[in-house]
Amino acid sequence: MSGPIHQHHRTAASEPPLIQGLLVGVALTFLTLFLFVPLVAVFYEALRKGMGVYLAAITDPYALSAIRLTLLSAVCAVPLNMLFGVAAAWAITKFEFRGKSLLITLIDLPFAVSPVIAGLIYVLLFGAHGWLGPALTQHDIKIIFAVPGIVLATVFVTVPFIARELIPLMQAQGTEEEEAALVLGASGWTTFWRITLPNIKWGLLYGVVLCTARAMGEFGAVSVVSGHIRGLTNTLPLHIEILYNEYQFAAAFACASLLTLLALAILGIKTFIERYTFSQRRPPAGGDTP
Amino acid sequence: MSIDIRGLYKRFGNFTALDHIDLKIPAGQLVALLGPSGCGKTTLLRIIAGLETADQGSIWFDGQETGSRHVRERRVGFVFQHYALFQHMTVFENIAFGLRVRPRKQRPSETQIRAKVHELLALIQLEWLAERYPSQLSGGQRQRIALARALAVEPQVLLLDEPFGALDTKVRKELRRWLRRLHDEIHVTSVFVTHDQEEALEVSDQIVVMNHGRIEQIGTPEAVYDTPATPFVYQFLGNINLFHGRAHSGWVRLGGLRVQAPEYQDAQHAPAMAYVRPHDIDLLREPEDSDSTLPATVNRIAILGSLVRLELRQTSDGEIAEVEMTRERFAADPLQIGDLVFVKPRHLRVFLQEEAATEASVPMHWHGDGGGI
Amino acid sequence: MMPPQLRQPSVLPGFGLTLGFTVAYLCLIVLIPLAMAFLEAFQLGWREFWSVVSAPRVMASYRLTFGAALLAAAINTGFGLIVAWVLVRYHFPGKRLVDALVDLPFALPTAVAGITLTTLYAGNGWLGQFLKPLGIKIAFTPTGIIVALVFISLPFVVRTVQPVLEDLEAEVEEAAASLGADRWQIFQRVIFPAIRPALLTGFTLAFARAIGEYGSVIFIAGNLPMVSEITPLLIVSKLEQYDYKGAAAVSVVMLILSFILLLLINLLQRWNRSRQA
């Protein structure tokens, strides 16, 4: 019975097939030119000179040290921003206080700042000519053109990712379950670990995934603070830049293909999380009897 | 456990949610907090639970002040309006939660927890659902699980926020009877919030009628319905007919009607309002004497199961009045649309306009404006 | 009567701890470092500051950066609407894959995007070879910048409009149809007003993202002063010449413009929510 009605509904509020086809065509052409062709091109260019060149490029000592540094900066930045994201989301969604919308805006701030400026401000703060530069030189601490600077710049550009995933999620969940746990005698920590965390785990994972992607792919901010010392302060994106500027295109694309695979994996995880949490939210069929 | 509420005051910004509430709830009773939305009833319930803090005033459980006790230590059972079941836990784990989070020394053994949860599942007759998740349950089932979870910690007080609000009519009726039976079994002091008068009248031992952060009346369902203390209570519980008129030296004149009102002996032409329940009206074929009945014509007749509801138009001013009578009585002298009848209120309550004026925002089943003499 | 409260009391614990940590973290990582740019720039003095930020080469870079970002955001608004529409309303093979891939520019490092687009649109590239005979040059021209910015800001409009289109009730359109409106009228008068705030939000987000972009642009732009040099690149080259104050001054101008945009985005989103409620 519902079939024909559904069909009827479709035709009542839809466009003629010609227009539909045209719109789909325009959308797919646009996406092909700007998304699909570049995606294929990365792998094509990477493998153009053969598997040998590809493997040599990604097992090159400089490439390996760039990969290590990229992973290191992500491993430092992501947990810090995770802690921050959870704390900020808890304060913002579980309490009413003055200045809340200002705080939310401030969390978004790094999104609006050009990555280049993110790098610059750390140079101004910690660089040899920076505000804290002389003090740091005295104690022989190197931040700019060294690993700590790369980590700091990465932290800066990825500050909002996890908080922004958690805030709307926890807002929608409200505080009733936490209140119920407290009424039943649970302590604050118990409530967080046993009630809040299980409820936000998928959102948290998604935020972590996005944060990791951005941390590993960041270019502008890291480029400013890195100093481009091969084998020491080169991350994978910076290594790609150097190879490209030296006209080692196949090697550059080989390294780029690694980051592209990472990006595809992230999209896969994202799609999986969305489907999974969606199917969990769906009410079961026929469960509406008292 | 008895609850004693003294001078409770609570504001949210500029909004006064509770305006110096005093209330004593005797041990073992089932009490309804009844009122329109925004009257402060949920706030009062949450303050009793310890989920909100009052700006002023205190709450005493069995003569002990609770203010310093955190919600964790109050041993109250709270059933949330939308149940607040833990979505990621099974029904069993939801009910067991309160026992599992006790400090290690007071925590029962796993066997004791199992026994307790199964006992509660038996009480709510849902043993077969133990391993399901909340999202797999119907609204009525979730409601009962929420109640079992609250009872698991053996609360001294059970608090329910709009317990049947989110359910459809049929389930709601079943569940409130079930709640009443359950209360008769376990006798824990219980307070529930509702905006549904029928629910309050059917289930509770005492009704506390609230409006604008104040208590309008406290009494048994019978007392609150039969002798409302204020115009607000009159309008909020049950259907009413409203007549406008003036009170003067112990008499009230309402259109062609003149009734005695000894309580307003001193009134001098004061605007007054009279409230009559639709079932407190007799319909006569002939006038009695000139000022004890009002002429009207039958406008509409609706047969509602065992009741007949008639809509009358008053001859004098065209105002509408509603009358209810049993099928039997209607059958004894069937009226037809267009018939002339004479309205004689059996029971009528008069309030002076000043008392009633503040209640203008309350919705009524019908409202004739002005008229009067 | 009551003293004004900093926060409404709540039984949930952890307010002081979490808010304290949040504010301290933001100050240390974001606010204090950002304040450095302002401090450094204001050491120049007003007159010199003005001469730095209004030098012809800098002015040309603003025009290019904001112009290209504006164009890219506009292109993405038009095509983004079509993509969102097609993804929500129609069925076609591979739709789920396409839907998942729309987010690729969020996940793909900008340097990868930069070298790939440059290779594709260079005169001998897959796409560039078709354009060359027509006399169209993309790589190493300002047009190349627009192409890169379109790529990196592509998902914004799609992802802001898509949920609004999904939530649009079919009944409203059916009601309009039953009142005699044709399909175009329904789009113009019923659907478009409903998605307009989301479209604007998406546009502004795309614009804000495109202004600050660096990684993808520097590969494709050619980076000729006065012609194809974007403002972030100018900041980098000032920095490389150890002109910290000059770099800070230009950054301050960009920061202020970005803050204004951020404010605008927040207002738009609030407007969105109030309309949906």
TrEMBL record, chain A:
Span-the-membrane segments of this chain are 21-44, 64-90, 102-123, 143-163, 204-229, 249-273
- Keyword set for this entry? Cell inner membrane, Cell membrane, Membrane, Sulfate transport, Transmembrane, Transmembrane helix, Transport
Localization recorded for this chain is: Cell inner membrane
* Molecular-function GO terms, alphabetical: ABC-type sulfate transporter activity
Write the gene name: cysW
What is the recorded name of this protein?
Sulfate transport system permease protein CysW
Q: Which Gene3D superfamilies match?
A: MetI-like (1.10.3720.10)
Q: How does it sit in the membrane?
A: Multi-pass membrane protein
The Gene Ontology CC terms held by the record are: plasma membrane
Q: Which InterPro entries does this entry report, sorted A to Z?
A: CysW_permease (IPR011866), MetI-like (IPR000515), MetI-like_sf (IPR035906), Sulph_transpt2 (IPR005667)
- Short name of any one Pfam family annotated for the protein: BPD_transp_1
> What's this chain's function?
Part of the ABC transporter complex CysAWTP (TC 3.A.1.6.1) involved in sulfate/thiosulfate import. Probably responsible for the translocation of the substrate across the membrane.
Principal location class: membrane
**Residue ranges constituting the ABC transmembrane type-1 domain according to the UniProt record:** 67-270
- Give the quaternary structure: The complex is composed of two ATP-binding proteins (CysA), two transmembrane proteins (CysT and CysW) and a solute-binding protein (CysP).
Automatic annotation (TrEMBL), chain B:
Q: Which PROSITE patterns does the record associate with it?
A: ABC_TRANSPORTER_1, ABC_TRANSPORTER_2
Q: Which CDD domains match?
A: ABC_CysA_sulfate_importer (cd03296)
Xref: InterPro entries: AAA+_ATPase (IPR003593), ABC_SmlMolc_Importer (IPR050093), ABC_transporter-like_ATP-bd (IPR003439), ABC_transporter-like_CS (IPR017871), CysA_C (IPR041193), Mo/tungstate-bd_C_term_dom (IPR008995), P-loop_NTPase (IPR027417), Sulph_transpt1 (IPR005666)
Which Pfam families does the entry link to?
ABC_tran, CysA_C_terminal, TOBE_3
State the UniProt keywords alphabetically. ATP-binding, Cell membrane, Hydrolase, Membrane, Nucleotide-binding, Sulfate transport, Translocase, Transport
Q: Which SMART domains match?
A: AAA
In its UniProt record, a GO molecular function of this protein is: ATP hydrolysis activity
Gene3D superfamilies linked to this entry: P-loop containing nucleotide triphosphate hydrolases
Q: What is its EC number?
A: 3.6.3.25
Q: Extract the SUPFAM superfamilies matched here.
A: MOP-like, P-loop containing nucleoside triphosphate hydrolases
What is one GO cellular-component annotation here?
ATP-binding cassette (ABC) transporter complex
Q: Where is the ABC transporter domain?
A: 3-237
Q: Which NCBIfam families match?
A: 3a0106s01 (TIGR00968)
Protein name as annotated: Sulfate/thiosulfate transporter subunit ATP-binding component of ABC superfamily
TrEMBL record, chain C:
**Matches recorded under InterPro entries:** CysT_permease, MetI-like, MetI-like_sf, Sulph_transpt2
In terms of PROSITE patterns, this protein maps to: ABC_TM1
Major place of residence: membrane
Classify the protein's membrane topology as the record does: Multi-pass membrane protein
Family matches, as SUPFAM superfamilies: MetI-like (SSF161098)
The chain positions of domain ABC transmembrane type-1 read 62-265
Listed GO molecular functions?
Answer: ABC-type sulfate transporter activity
Looking at the UniProt entry, the stretches that span the membrane are 12-39, 60-86, 106-127, 139-158, 186-207, 214-235, 247-268
What's any one GO cellular component for it?
Answer: plasma membrane
Q: Which Gene3D superfamilies match?
A: MetI-like
What UniProt keywords apply to this chain's record, in alphabetical order?
Membrane, Sulfate transport, Transmembrane, Transmembrane helix, Transport
Describe the task this protein carries out: Part of the ABC transporter complex CysAWTP (TC 3.A.1.6.1) involved in sulfate/thiosulfate import. Probably responsible for the translocation of the substrate across the membrane.
Q: What do we know about how this protein assembles, alone or with others?
A: The complex is composed of two ATP-binding proteins (CysA), two transmembrane proteins (CysT and CysW) and a solute-binding protein (CysP).
The protein depicted here goes by the name Sulfate transport system permease protein CysT
Biological source species: Candidatus Competibacter denitrificans Run_A_D11
